[in-house]
Every structure is written in structure tokens, then in C-alpha cells.
Write a structure and sequence with these properties.
The protein is α/β, with parallel strands linked by helices. 37% of the residues lie in helices and 14% in strands. The protein has one domain: Spore Coat Polysaccharide Biosynthesis Protein SpsA, Chain A (Alpha-Beta Complex), CATH 3.90.550.10. The strands form two sheets. Strands 3-2-1-4-7-5-8 form a seven-stranded mixed beta sheet, with helices on both faces. Strands 6-9 form a two-stranded parallel ribbon. It is globular and about 40 Å long.
Length: 254
């Protein structure tokens, strides 16, 4: 297991997309996630699983799949993400932030490279997500989350964010906080340039809405607004609007 900086392949940093996956007790799901990342592994991209004090075989599953494993001293997902990002950011230009219960579409790597080349001003982007539940209410959640990420420039972590490392550095570094790190990252970076939304969705399970779609969505709106108020930021987007993040991500989930 690794604890320091992750070694890279001989491929130029300009051609690499580092993948960081925080994971806590995700042995049953992580294998499918890593299998979906095979285009990144075949390209020689560093794929790093940050084990956040798992009590199961998460680290072993990661190592067998060819990922580097870092140990986080805390169970907090945000701090695990920060540790993984910092381990590789000085030597790559792009970092892709993946959750352990995601499955990533095969076209993702090519789409990320294409859009960042086409939009040099972009600070990063998001793939979007598809929730693995056929009920119509989840289609509305996806529509709301897509609107928030694309129009309000506030992608969340469960929409598979990717970022330029130089933009993160200019924004003061990766958020060093235990939770809400994805919202903080979006808020910081959108002051420097646009987020691009690819609509190349990862798939995620509906477990984050197990307490009910409406209840979870309302709770997330309240938490996001409260966070932004405490941070002293206006609730509206730079160009105006209501500023209430749409959608139903369970902020305490993966």
C-alpha cells in the first residue's frame, strides 16, 4: 500500500488523466467501478483508491484491479479525496474524481480530453449521472441535477467531476474539509472560468435517496443554502438566478 506520492507511467503528464476514488467499505461495488475505468488503466493513467479506514477488503479489491492504494487516516470522504488529489496533482494536468459506486461509460476518457482541448478556458467539468431506478421520480432528479450543473455551474461529486489541476491551484487548492467538498470545489472554480457539462452520464445506485426522494432533495437544498450562507457567498449564480441547487444527492453518501 502507498502512503506518499503515487508513481506515474512514462506517459507525458499532458496526456494523463489521474483518477481518484475515495472508498470506505466498498469492496462489493469497487470492482465494477474499476472495471468501468479500464480505458484509463489501459492508457497508463494513474488510478488511485483512497481507502478511508475500511473494515472490509476494499484495499485488496483495488490492488487486484491494478489501482494504487492510499490509506486515509480518517473516514471522511472529503479528506480522502483531498489526500488522493494532492498525491498526484503536481504531476498531471487533469484529475477525474470518481465515487466507488459509480460505473463510468467507456467514452468518458475520450470525451474529457476532447472537451478540455476544445474549451481552453474551462476549469473542469462533469459527466452527469443516471440513477439505476426506473421510477419516473428519478428522471426528474436527473433533470434538476443536470440543470444545476450546467446552467448554475454547480456540479456535485455524484455527477463525476473532473478538474484542471492548475485551476484548483489558482483557486487556493483542493478543499481540505470532511464534507461538502464537491460544492466548495464548484463554488471556487466557477469564479475562474466555466464548468463544462458533458451529458455522458455515469450510473449510480439509488441508495442515496433511501429516505425518500422529496425528503432527501429538500434536505440537500437546505444544507447547500446553509453552507453557502455560512461561507458568506450569495445564493445566486454570478449571472443571477435563484441559486437553489436542484436535485437529490445525499450529501452524506458516496
Amino acid at each position: 500500500m502507498h502512503n506518499g506520492p503515487v508513481s506515474l507511467s512514462s506517459t507525458s503528464a499532458r496526456d494523463l488523466i489521474a483518477v481518484v476514488i475515495p472508498a470506505q467499505d466498498e469492496a462489493s461495488r469497487l470492482g465494477r467501478c474499476l472495471e468501468s475505468l479500464s480505458p484509463f488503466l489501459r492508457a497508463g493513467d494513474p488510478v488511485i483508491v483512497v481507502d478511508a479506514c475500511s473494515a472490509d477488503a476494499t484495499a485488496e479489491v483495488a490492488a487486484r484491479a491494478g489501482a494504487a492504494v492510499l490509506r486515509s487516516p480518517t473516514r471522511a470522504r472529503g479528506l480522502a479525496l483531498a489526500r488522493g488529489f494532492e498525491s498526484v496533482a503536481p504531476r498531471v494536468e487533469v484529475v477525474f474524481l470518481v465515487h466507488a459506486d459509480m460505473e463510468v461509460p467507456a467514452a468518458a476518457r475520450a470525451r474529457i480530453r476532447e472537451v478540455l482541448a476544445a474549451v481552453p478556458a474551462a476549469v473542469g467539468g462533469a459527466l452527469g449521472h443516471r440513477i439505476l431506478d426506473d421510477r419516473w421520480r428519478f428522471r426528474w432528479v436527473e433533470v434538476g441535477n443536470r440543470f444545476r450543473a450546467d446552467r448554475w455551474q454547480l456540479p456535485y461529486g455524484d455527477q463525476a467531476q473532473f478538474v484542471r489541476t492548475d485551476a484548483v491551484a489558482r483557486a487556493g487548492g483542493f478543499p481540505d474539509q470532511s464534507e461538502m467538498e464537491d460544492l466548495e470545489l464548484s463554488l471556487r472554480l466557477r469564479t475562474l472560468g466555466p464548468w463544462v457539462y458533458l451529458d455522458c452520464p455515469v450510473t449510480i445506485p439509488p441508495r442515496h435517496w433511501r429516505n425518500g426522494v422529496v425528503r432527501t432533495t429538500l434536505r440537500n437544498w437546505i444544507r447547500a443554502l446553509s453552507y453557502r450562507a455560512k461561507a458568506g457567498r450569495p445564493s445566486a449564480r454570478r449571472s443571477g438566478g435563484s441559486g437553489v441547487p436542484a436535485g437529490g444527492q445525499n450529501r452524506g453518501g458516496t
